[in-house]
Amino acid sequence: MGRRKVQLGSVVAGNYVLFVGRGKEESETREKPEMAASTDTEKQQEEQEQVVNPWEVSAKDGGKIDYDKLIDRFGCQRLDDTLIQRLERLTSRLPHVFLRRGVFFAHRDFAEILDAYERGDKFYLYTGRGPSSEALHLGHLIPFMFTKYLQDAFKVPLVIQLTDDEKFLWKNLTIEETQRLARENAKDIIACGFDISKTFIFADFSYVGGSFYKNMMEVAKRVTYNQAVGIFGFTGEDHIGKVSFPPVQAVPSFPSSFPHLFSGKENLRCLIPCAIDQDPYFRMTRDVAPRIGCHKPALIESIFFPALQGETGKMSASDPNSAIYVTDSAKDIKNKVNKHAFSGGQDSIEKHRQLGANIEVDIPIKYLSFFLEDDDELEHIKKEYGAGRMLTGEVKQRLVEVLTGLVERHRRARAAVTEEMVDAFMAVRPLPHMFD
């Protein structure tokens, strides 16, 4: 997809939005929905600096993604220490490193999920993957690593959607190729350690129908074409398959889409861990949900895992040198880090010793913040490197060690995943012990 304007609302006037052409009601005025999170002027100004939507993430002129502006634009909330401490108290677990270091930084209604959990009410998790490559890169792993932590901490069921249909619509791939990639990606997902007694993985081409399809139609009927253009930036050049896809990603938020799992439990809440570029789908979903008698899904959203070359965008499967793959060898990882990882160090050792590194732009430091478990070691590296007492080569060497260990552990876990295990995770079946 080329760069496009991303408009996030319909015609906004104050706190109200005008919708036109909804059956017998020629127009309807109601409170401004979540789909209109910011004004057109604000959006146009921000688009000059950064583009963030489900298909493109980029900052112009070498800039960084401004997450504060994204929070304001999307209308979500920052995940603060109070919520993280409450999560720790309720689950009796140390918060995940992704929470401690602000990787997951924003949310919608996460406090309500904690309220429900504290009351003894149940909920389920939903996340997903668009299978467009043979193997996952580290950026793809992040939501699954975090979702596993949530599943273990709360002891709740999880549905994982593989949008093979989306990749057929957006990529130059055949249906058969996307179906094959979905199974290959499922192996990487299973290797993250999910509990099969609490986890259902499904691919759209195989699963969509029945109650799931009925919910898709309920959503589709309540989102106008103009709203879809406003939320997702569709143009006259986009085929109708793209315009019709968003309900497919929306309805796993509703328990009635999975009658084999949640029959009689249609009032369950849903929590979605995802990167913040997926927020447009779920703003739309949250706007529609009350109108079809469902809870709004809650979200907990992450920053982007940056490309090796810097923070102007996210790691991309389309550029092999921007990404570390779970299939990369130790030699590949060392070469990519040493050759391509953007450094905040100075041009010479003498200058570096004098001025120190700019750790705010240094990619090895960013990656260590994601994957180095030891908080004390990370702070020591940042302090020494920032003061010039540690050199770029030393920081990169430590990163290579951390990433090589992570990838090797994942490779061993994936090698143990059989075709029969994939079939078992993807079987349409009840999960009688999903809340045990």
TrEMBL record:
Residues covered by region (Disordered): 24-51
Gene Ontology MF terms in the entry: ATP binding; tryptophan-tRNA ligase activity
Pfam families: tRNA-synt_1b
Main EC class the enzyme belongs to: ligase
Any Gene Ontology CC annotation: cytoplasm
Entry EC no(s): 6.1.1.2
PROSITE patterns for the chain: AA_TRNA_LIGASE_I (PS00178)
Alphabetical list of SUPFAM superfamilies matching this protein: Nucleotidylyl transferase
Listed GO biological process terms: post-embryonic development; reproductive structure development; tryptophanyl-tRNA aminoacylation
Keywords per UniProt: Aminoacyl-tRNA synthetase, ATP-binding, Cytoplasm, Ligase, Nucleotide-binding, Protein biosynthesis
Location(s), subcellular: Cytoplasm
Start-end of Basic and acidic residues biased regions: 24-46
Coiled coil: none
Similarity annotation: Belongs to the class-I aminoacyl-tRNA synthetase family.
Protein name stated in the entry: Tryptophan--tRNA ligase, cytoplasmic
